[in-house]
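Dear colleague,

Following up on Tuesday's group meeting, I ran the structure prediction for the two-component complex that the binding team flagged. I've pasted the input sequences exactly as they went in, so you can double-check that nothing got truncated or mislabelled along the way. The structure tokens for the whole assembly follow below. Feel free to forward this to whoever is handling the docking comparison.

Inputs:
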Amino acid sequence: MSRARLPAPPDLAEGALRIVALGGLGEIGRNMAVFEFAGRLLVVDCGVLFPEEDQPGVDLILPDFGPIADRLDEVEAVVLTHGHEDHIGALPYLLRLRPDIPVVGSKLTLALVEAKLREHRIAPDVRPVDDGAVITLGPFEVEFLAVNHSIPDAMAVAIRTPAGLVLHTGDFKMDQVPLDGRITDLNGFARLGDEGVDLLMVDSTNAEVPGFVSSEKEIVPVLDAVFLRAQGRIIVASFASHVHRIQQVIDMAALHGRKVAFVGRSMVRNMGIARDLGYLRIPGGMLVASDDLAELPDDEAVLICTGSQGEPMSVLARIAGRNHPITVGPTDTVVLASSLIPGNENAVFRVINGLARHGAHVVHKGNALVHVSGHAAAGELRYLYNIVKPRSVLPVHGEWRHMRANADVAQSVGIDADRVILAEDGTVLDLQDGEVTVAGYVPVGFVYVDGAGVGDVTEASLKDRRVLGEEGFISVFVAVDIVDGAIVAGPEIHARGFGPDDTLAGALTEQVVEAVERALAEGADEVHDLQQRIRRVVGSWVQSQHRRRPMIVPVVVEA
Amino acid sequence: MSRARLPAPPDLAEGALRIVALGGLGEIGRNMAVFEFAGRLLVVDCGVLFPEEDQPGVDLILPDFGPIADRLDEVEAVVLTHGHEDHIGALPYLLRLRPDIPVVGSKLTLALVEAKLREHRIAPDVRPVDDGAVITLGPFEVEFLAVNHSIPDAMAVAIRTPAGLVLHTGDFKMDQVPLDGRITDLNGFARLGDEGVDLLMVDSTNAEVPGFVSSEKEIVPVLDAVFLRAQGRIIVASFASHVHRIQQVIDMAALHGRKVAFVGRSMVRNMGIARDLGYLRIPGGMLVASDDLAELPDDEAVLICTGSQGEPMSVLARIAGRNHPITVGPTDTVVLASSLIPGNENAVFRVINGLARHGAHVVHKGNALVHVSGHAAAGELRYLYNIVKPRSVLPVHGEWRHMRANADVAQSVGIDADRVILAEDGTVLDLQDGEVTVAGYVPVGFVYVDGAGVGDVTEASLKDRRVLGEEGFISVFVAVDIVDGAIVAGPEIHARGFGPDDTLAGALTEQVVEAVERALAEGADEVHDLQQRIRRVVGSWVQSQHRRRPMIVPVVVEA
């Protein structure tokens, strides 16, 4: 809960397990938990977070590896629960620091990881495991349990040490009739619950949502209606990892006598992997290359692409902006068969409006059941808590509102409030003799990837960007001869992003000249002092004339 | 639909009515429609649009008054359908140009307008009308019909000229059991329908939503459950104009023996107006001043404030950020009894997360029915179309996706596709002998209010802001003596918002010096030419070293 920042933790007691999240608590993304026992470390997940609008220009946000940066040799392995970016996306940046860390996960997860790492020119030491496997990684005994999620082959992870038993759900839901028949292993959860789970780390994403998530199969009649009504092309946008959703689209295309083409790099790559490994079935002759799509009659074509989150460079955004060979019109139907990730609303609606403007029919989760969530809602979480009967609970994978709601769900089925821990990234939990205590805090921050740089962009740069982006800047350049007390060149006054540019230089030049000359006459002999005076005179002029606060960049040089 | 830009319209034929929207088509906001007959103009609504994230730093966006700017003397009146900002907010900027334009509307609408205009030191010529009134404004006969919306006293407007009959719904829904018993006047709509409506202009906001909007009263049991469960304070955030929503909160407070306080300037002001005019009823002794709130026991207090859209300076955002005397904790309940306007998601969830982090229970439309929309859904629109039986339809008040969906609804009840017009701001429609034709296009753009300036901020400034906000800038100042072919001062290299600042100046100085000296040696004698060379060398260095594209601002002065 809201707590004063905690002190640094004491040394880890013998026989105790330490747990620290380096990301994923208080945010949906950059999931990464570090487990420590007897001087050895085990990492569960290593994901990225996508930036929000107050983090402009940032490409990705990584977990803060700081607390383990000088202990990477002690890492036994990275265990991955599933292949989504928010669980695997930061792996290239961790393996850059030590490429031979073993990477453990299911077959599909590791295939996606290897494809990603190839782009970073890293060949990881992968160790595939099956559902139900129990393996030993240093002092950690790790058991893997099947869970159902919006990507195949997801797993929960149970970690046994002499300190006690921890169960980490990963991302999961409890669809009782999933496409692949692989349901969340409640029998396994029950067995662990009977054995005694000391700490349950639980996906919080949908804890605010009452009831149960609809089954993936409930999308079938909706897709069927869309296909029945569609006169021309059908364009389906979804996540490139949602194999089951795409399987349903393919099945529906087969039913309605249409062929399908994958468009977009990640979609083509991932569907190739899923097909090679047997997770995706495409009837013979149904798949066409996207280049051959134009040769099909419109009413026999289904195009499957990414861009469901409104990404500006995606195929879908380019179609919407008439910046793509495919020109949609009133006979075409576009289906956004995906969630709308908070923060992407404007981008997504911009794409939908662009498509609607050209007359296309757009079907999305706002007007039809073409998406179901991959995360357990409150009703499912209650089953989980009652089956596992954990001694303590740590809500993970969520913003504060989700973790708070998850804590409420846990308490609603009788788990004592004192045993439901709301922690933030960097909070140190120690487990000993089955008891979890909050032991302290290690400082962690946001690590920004921007262009080629990792960590170059700081909070200060982002603050500057926010000011520049809202208000623009005014720069004033003056060269002075301090000995003679005279302006040698300038002032040159420039404004960008400010707005009323035209009148600016004229109105300001005189004031700047006056301020600088007065300062020099008063004996000012420091460039910094002159700059301060310029900043003040420009700032108050802009505020009084325009009620605005652009960044003011005075540069004085001695000539 | 998607059409090539149209030519300028021909002169308006005698006996024809011309209709041009200066805002509100393709966007939710800045609603403004201009009607022209026999050389006279009638304006319906004059609202603002709130900026999106790709319009950084902008305070407000106005309709483009350009097409009528030199014809304001011909305006008979501005008719207002209701008192929401997206229908009245631009009035101060129009009346600044001609303060004596008569302003016609219902009692509450005009009271809100007068309060707003007082802040702009404008005393408008207001002309209140009641439901059912028929008035003459120059060549226009205007009839007002009651409609139900999320603010009391909203009206539809029927405009009769010899050219035909136009019905403009304004914003409306069809709650059959509204709090004030004032239902949408379907009898009036039926009478007009039987008379023959030549053009129906229809609110599109909720056309994508199937079915019917729940009644405002369905919130009662939800609020009751919230009040029953609440142990400490209850803080309700809503729109300062949603009189009925706030009435329900007050009624619930009375039922549960709590007192209420209004907090925030617009909430205090508007509720004062609503109460004075008899739209809001507060039982005696129940209202306390916000300063006296602290003296009440927590479980007897209800605080009603704005901030439901996450506005950073609002009371609610300040409470969430621990930047307000009220410190919420685990016993407190916060209710966001409002819609979540698209584009505000991040801001709203930031506030909810802040509150959840301090332990407060947050109830919002995502987890409980504490809000119903103010706009007719598709089912209601079908009633409208079948009752009015319009000859032609113009979907208004919506983004393209909403207008497209509204067109589909109209066609679904049998209105011919050729008679459903999808137009954009500036599209000119002419009505003659009951027939609507698209006559051309007048150029309209976005008019940005930023600080004290109206229209100073251009698309070019916004483009600069976007680059600055994403990438920051690098500025390079050099003073040269062109005659001597030498650098006199500098280069001074500064970067803001860029990120890897530290190494920048060192790495670049030499390259800039070299580029400038080479240029001077080659006989370059134009400042502009030198600046171009600096831009090129810096740009390619940054791209190759950092894969980034900051704004590069080279300034060369002659000393």
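Chain B touches chain A through 79 residues (CB under 8 Å).

Cheers,
M.
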